[in-house]
Prior knowledge:
By secondary structure, the protein is an alpha/beta fold. It folds into 3 domains: 3-240, 4-Layer Sandwich (Glutamine Phosphoribosylpyrophosphate, subunit 1, domain 1), CATH 3.60.20; 250-451, Glucose-6-phosphate isomerase like protein, domain 1 (Rossmann fold, 3-Layer(aba) Sandwich); 453-600, Rossmann fold (3-Layer(aba) Sandwich). It has 20 helices and 27 strands. The strands form 5 sheets. It has an 8-stranded antiparallel sheet with strand order 3-2-4-1-10-9-11-15, covered by helices on one side. Strands 5-6-7-8-12-13-14 form a 7-stranded antiparallel sheet. The protein is globular, with a radius of gyration of 25 Å. Bound molecules: 2-deoxy-2-amino glucitol-6-phosphate. 2-deoxy-2-amino glucitol-6-phosphate binds next to helix 10.
Amino acid sequence: xxxxIGYVGKSEAVPILLDGLERLEYRGYDSAGVAVVSPSNTLQxxxxxxxxxVLREHLDAQDPLCGTIGIGHTRWATHGEPNDTNxxxxxxxxxxxxxxxxxxxENYLEIRASLERKGIPFHSETDTxxxxxxxxxxxxxxxxxxxxxxxxxxxxxxAYAMGILCEDFPxxxxxARKDAPLLIGYGEDGNFIASDVTALLAHTRTVTYMEDxxxxxxxxxxxxxxxxxxxxxxxxRHTVDWDVSAAEKGGYAHFMLKEIMEQGEAVRKTISxxxxxxxxxxxxxxxxxxxxxxxxxxCIVACGSAFHVGMVGKYVLERLLRIPVDAYLASEFRYSEPxxxxxxxxxxxxxxxxxxxxxxxxxxxxxxxxxxLSIVNVVGSSIARESDITLYTWAxxxxxxxxxxxxxxxxALLILLGVYCADMNGRISEEEYKTILADFLALPExxxxxLKNIEAYQKAASRYFNQNSVFYIGRNLDYxxxxxxxxxxxxxxYIHSESYAAGELKHGTISLIEPGTLVISLxxxxxxxxxxxxxxxxxxxxxxxxIVVATEETAPAVKDQADELLVIPNxxxxxxxxxxxxxxxxxxxxxxLNRGCDIDKPRNLAKSVTVE
Length: 612
Ligand code: AGP
């Protein structure tokens, strides 16, 4: 996600800002910028697409940006392509106020429309520019910058961590946060704001963590924090004893663990903005009702974990839409002379948006007359740019090679798309529609509930980290899920593993089951629970140890067959995989940890496979 740094004090701001942004580079970004208020009280902004080196080149090529107060930002694009205009800081039309922002303003379109009706021009595609323009609008109307800030915070909805400068108050930096991290740093010769402590460690280890609804006003020698009622408050100062490496991971041992733990927030950011007033709202599909109603087939095409999302999607979308839905490996699809056409939608799923096989499959699909809808995490990536429609997951940058939060947000978004289309085609009752939407909105909290059960996953991993081979079995959605569980284990622990449709074992593979073999059985799909239970009994009869992943509903029927039982909360049957994958991710993580593997950078693997 985006990175924020702000400084006010006695030293020149730009070098401090650039140093801080460099320390935030690990978070992933596609553009960067800085704003300072000069000694003559003029707001100056320089921002560029690309790496920090591009920003430095721009700064070196012009008169030095002088000033002892400034804000800086590295942008991970969510709304609007990566380019100079969409980069932060954003300024209001009068150029008096600059803002850097991390988060998503969910009602930015309606605010933008109301300001445009007032004749206020917008220049970018971002949600953040709405904050800058609204601040300037209220500042002109109310005549006081703090009144303007509180008026804006009362109007915007969504998540924000923001830094604000106003050239009429040259020695003052304002910060505000809600649902996105922001901290204050107390330095020897000035004070700071930052989205994470990594950006500050070179200057201070004394910090205050802002909480939701708080606003802070910083000068070179003072910090005043206000609560959401605008009452001044005193907050505890903490001393950070992390080293930079630990700080980059937010205190977690690995990026993978950090990203697993971020899944509740990632799912919320991806789903919540697309549900308004009890209806699903996918603006990217506006006006395509006729096309979607005429669909006769869907092909989901991807690689690796994204393909496994497609396998879940096959079961879910066929159940919802009652048309043929198939999942294809992109590397196979592209050479299989697929039967496509204008009544077939091809859905390409890709975290990076750069996977060569998936890109080639996309081009093959378009060549054969199909529209392509892509589900992508990287805004402006190649697959996004060549798709007819792109739905972005807003999981934020995923640094670990083994995907986790991108997988769960892709799956949640694909299921949301299925429900949206089913509703449009009249294939879902109003009652089921309301039920599944309620479960969608409750999903982030349930993800966090599953994540709390960490000791159970650690215990199972400590018992079975020395296996030579592991089998994942399940039926229907559980089978599709087992594919991802198996890949996670292979990728990071280097243990051989296979995923099998539980009903298929007896057709050969069960010959490999012997005393001590570990079988992980997904038993969350209630309609086939008895069949799955029989399969568990079969492998146990041959000496296997069995870890069972079950829901609160299915656990009672299978707990007597489990050597380790991992229970997750119930949710709508079609959403259950979003929760059930988490124990599999964490089991794989702790097995790899016990085996001393390089979890974030497994051998032979790349985060984005841009070769055939
Ligand atoms: C997942 O853990 C792997 N790193 C890999 O299978 C990945 O899912 C696959 O390469 C597809 O990548 P993409 O989503 O960026 O297209």
